[in-house]
Amino acid sequence: MKENKQKLELTWHGKKDWENPEPRLLIEKEIYESDSKGLEDNLLIYGDNLLGLKSLERDYTGKIKCVYIDPPYNTKSCFKHYNDNMEHSLWLNMMKERLVILHRLLREDGSIWISIDAYESHYLKVLCDEIFGRKNFIDEVVWERAYSPINLKKTLSRCHDYILAYAKKIDCLEFNKLPRTNEANSRYKNPDDDPRGIWKSGDLSVGPIIKEKIYPIITPSGKRVLPPKGYCWRLTKERFEEYKKDNRIWFGKDGNNVPSIKRFLTEVSDGITAMTFWKREYVGDSQEAKREVKKFNNKDIFVTPKPERLIQRILYLATNPGDLVLDSFAGSGTTGAVAHKMGRRWIMIEMEKTGHTHIIPRLNMVINGEDEGGITKHVNWKGGGSYKYLEMAPSLLEKNRLGRWVINKKYNSAMLSEAVCMHSGYKYSPRKDIYWMHGYSTEHDFIYVVAQTLTKAELNRLSNEVGEGRTLMIYCSAFKVDGIEFDNLTIRKIPKTILNKCTWGKDDYSLKVALSKEADRANKRKQVKPSSYSSGYSPRAPIAVKGVM
Predict the structure, then answer these.
(1) 417 pLDDT exceeds 80?
(2) What is the pLDDT of residues 494-519, one digit of tens each?
(3) Best CA proximity match to 419, nearest among 75, 21, 18, 26
(4) Domain end call among 269, 288, 313
(5) Hey, what long-range contacts does 532-537 have (CB within 8 A, 24 or more apart)?
(6) DSSP secondary structure letters along 11-75
(7) Are residues 530 and 451 part of one domain?
(8) By percentage, how much of the chain surpasses pLDDT 70?
(9) Of 392, 413, 436, which residue is a domain's last?
(10) Does 86 reside within a domain?
(11) Does residue 342 share a domain with residue 329?
(12) 426 and 382 in one domain?
């Protein structure tokens, strides 16, 4: 019998319509610096986040320690003109394209944290299982974002959101422990005046069952005790007797309780393993977040910010000082602000106006030591450091009056060389002393890009200069060789040889564009009779999970 290798997966309309975005050059527009030294090489990128992520692949693949994203939640208010199936399809397509690149950008010991609500959390979980691997699922955090009910609700008033956490490789990942709190330490007492100090009791029973660890224990009061059904004792009988002799077993003040292990504060680790329910009193809530963003823009208040304490918790667990953090849905800039205050390097991408109205003012207050809110006092932040503001270059290719793809007129020779290096897998590294060395792939293999026609004489001179033991990849508008071949030269025409590399001339991959395109398709379908639809496609094709269980 032939084995069925079909995998379990989430399917939806348009899942196979894969976008192939163009990696763009990132143009440095301004450097914002404080008077104090601090973290450098932080990047704020303005533009479409799918194009931005694609542009980061060249230099940052495998270098990001932690990704935090707060993507637009797929609420019905965003898709009021579309049926439920189309809502999910457009949103899932948007997420998949970005998550695939984010996965590549993560370090082997990195992790990604995604804020989401109940509308799409379960779909997103299955999608992330497909991209990151189900074994790399860390857990689902429940964040208490509100403290009072909305009494206008007729059913339930939701007071929480979720944060899905995945590892790049779960075997390589280990989180930091949370610092011990006074509340945690207050649970330790010393009812028997043990000279080793305060302690608290821990469960002596554990599962699964190990037969040699099931035995009766006689309490000081004469009571016979066995472990609960389905459990055994944590210690062997011999080890139990050692603990008892060392006064590490607690039977209660009257000696009649089920035995437990005494755990002394002096012997526990300095930190506490984080749990998955994050209360607002420890990580903040939505109201706290809105108060924070009002301080740098009280006229145009960001609708869905996250509190700095929430991001601090994530970065404290998943990163260390100097690590690189990425947020490709920057919003109001909370991730960058918190990362900066905590001594982490950061990259943020934002295409909406909030990049200028919220993020830049906020970051400038942070680096200048003027932001007194959020976690500033907790981490003793005084200001310092810098960041670069980058914009994406226009598409390398544009169409001329005849509808043919040509090199964009806005590209100078240096931009052209760097862009072609990016598309060809070469490291852009121009040499001033050798005009034809624009980049390299190895120490012996180089690239030269020129937007002109090369003659046979020019190619012959290049071949002689390259010499033996080295090769040169040449991209040019045209060339004339008259049948002559050069062993150390490979010659290709631009833009012809790069036309199929990616999608050219598209600047916006946002949900707004996807909605606009779907609206156009919907209008066209209205003009077609229902019977004309083929059996293989339906505009209301449902989302499904398919596969062999």
Answers:
(1) yes
(2) 999 999 999 999 999 887 666 556 65
(3) 26
(4) 269
(5) none
(6) E-TTTT----PPPPPEEEEEEEE-SS------EEEES-HHHHHHHHHHHHTT-EEEEEE-PPP--
(7) no
(8) 89
(9) 392
(10) yes
(11) yes
(12) no
For the whole model, what pTM was predicted? 0.82
Q: Residue 447 in 3-state DSSP?
A: strand
Is the model's pLDDT at 83 over the cut of 90?
no
Residue 229 belongs to a domain:
yes
Tokens of 47: 């533009």
Residues 439-491 have pLDDT tens digits of 999 999 999 999 999 999 999 999 999 999 999 999 999 998 877 789 999 99
CA distance 108 to 89: 30
333 & 462 share domain: no
Are the beta carbons of 470 and 446 closer than 8 angstroms?
yes
Residue 16 lies in a domain: no
Contact 332, 354 (CB under 8 A): yes
Where does the pLDDT of residue 533 fall: very low under 50, low under 70, confident under 90, or very high at 90 and above?
very low
**Number of structural domains the chain divides into:** 4
Query: Which among 424, 502, 420 is positioned nearest to 50, based on CA atoms?
Result: 502
Q: How far is the C-alpha of 53 from the C-alpha of 179, rounded, in Å?
A: 34
Domain coverage including residue 535: 511-546
Q: What angle do CA 429, 435, 441 make, to 5 degrees?
A: 35
In the predicted model, is pLDDT for residue 295 greater than 80?
Answer: yes
Quote the CA–CA distance of 497 and 446 in Å, as a whole number: 18
Query: What residues contact residue 540 under an 8 Å CB cut-off, 6+ apart?
Result: 83, 85, 86
Q: Are 226 and 149 contained in the same domain? A: no
- Per-residue pLDDT at 85 exceeds 60: no
Structural contact between residues 428 and 417, judged by C-beta atoms closer than 8 angstroms: yes
pLDDT, one tens digit per residue, over 127-140 is 999 999 999 999 99
Residues 189 and 166 in one domain: no
Q: What are the structure tokens assigned to 2, written together? A: 């032939």
Contact criterion met (CB below 8 Å) for 97 and 51: no
Instruction: List the structure tokens of 155.
Output: 């059913």
Question: Does a structural domain hold residue 18?
Answer: no
Q: Residue 464 is inside which H or E element, if any?
A: helix 456-466
The DSSP secondary structure of 369-392, one letter per residue, reads T---STTTTTTT-----EEEEEEE
CB count in 10 Å sphere of residue 291:
15
Q: Where are the alpha helices (DSSP H) in 108-192?
A: 121-132, 182-185
Q: Do residues 385 and 40 make contact, with C-beta atoms less than 8 angstroms apart?
A: yes
What is the distance, to the nearest Å, from the Cα of residue 477 to the centroid of all Cα atoms in its chain? 40
* DSSP line for 401-419: TTS-EEE-TT--HHHHHHH
Pairing of β 160-167 and β 106-116: antiparallel
User: Residue type at 106?
Assistant: L
* Residues 6+ away with beta carbon under 8 Å from 154: none
